[in-house]
Amino acid sequence: MFLIPFETIFYHIIPTITALFLFLGLAYLIVIKQYKSTYFSYYVCFLICFTIFLLGRPLQFYSGHILAHLILYIRFLILFSIGFPSLLIANKMRCGLTLNRWGYVLPYIMGELERWFL
């Protein structure tokens, strides 16, 4: 029996497997289903940002101290400045809300401003 510590399983192996399954699901949706909706690209952007966020944790763990902090900030920058605003816009569009120009720009501005307050 392998003796793998629980920290390694929960912080490195499970996020990596989850990210690979998300990439597989994303490839299935793009290649097989071929959605043509206007909000689908925002969901794709969120899924890509979230998988980058998940795959960055093992990379951060096995890096040096300074590089690990840089990877951490980049992970959160990608997720909060690009990923979550894209998810918000996609959900608004899917609910049928009409968005003006500020409806598209404001979530990204808020995500970028939030980064400065972390």
Descriptive overview:
- The protein is mostly helical and 118 residues long.
- Helix content is 81%, strand content 0%.
- The protein has four helices and no strands.
- The chain has helices spanning 6-33, 40-61, 65-94, 101-116.
- Helix 1 runs antiparallel to helix 2, helix 2 (40-61) packs antiparallel against helix 3 and helix 3 packs antiparallel against helix 4 (101-116).
Summarize the structure.
The protein is an all-alpha fold and 118 residues long.
Main beta-sheet annotation = none
Name the shape in a single word. flat
Question: What is the string of SSEs from the N terminus onward?
Answer: HHHH
* Measured distance between first and last alpha carbons: 42 Å
Determine the structural class based on helices, strands and strand pairing: mainly alpha
Low-pLDDT segments, ≥5 res: none
Helical fraction equals over 70%
Quote the beta fraction: under 5%
Give average pLDDT, whole number: 87
Count, helices? 4
Taking all Cα atoms into account, the compactness measure Rg is 17 Å
The total beta strand count reads 0
